[in-house]
Amino acid sequence: MKISPYFALLRSSYEAEINDMAFDSEGKNVLRQRLSQRRKELPFLRQMMASAPEMVAIVFHQGMRFSKPALMDALVAKDPSQLPDWASLSAHVSLEPWALGLAEELCKDASGDTLMVLAAGMEYLFHHTPAAVAASDDEDDDKEGEDQDSEEEKEARAAEEAGNDWMAEQGFDRKE
User: Fold this and answer.
1) How confident is the model at residue 113 (pLDDT cuts 50, 70, 90)?
2) Beta bridge partners of 66
């Protein structure tokens, strides 16, 4: 499976976020409780849809099922400008009953449609790729394509950094 640099960075951030939430200081698995709490914080988290989508998308962790893996493989190979809209993708992504209301709430926002597509991509990658997966480039990509990937990777890192800065301003520890 080919993963665009954009989704590779998102996947890494998403996995780190889940890992950060999984265990408390005593080593107990508290992911379920922390996800429940995060879902209750959705009105606050909505502010971060553009700057730190992984922070918002995590509310859908374990809440999506994918009927067409080939479609999802194609999705995670795309760059941000090539993403489909949620309406066309949602026909192939089943949401758990508890996630339906969250999706409806997010889709009221102008960025909600994009967030849902990104959430589906991150959740799919989390469950369908090994942890060490990195973005793969075709050997026959020309130099222009490599430059474009590099630029998109820089944009994704800048967005992640902006999200980290915003979280630090809100009093949270910086995510490394």
Assistant:
1) very high
2) 93
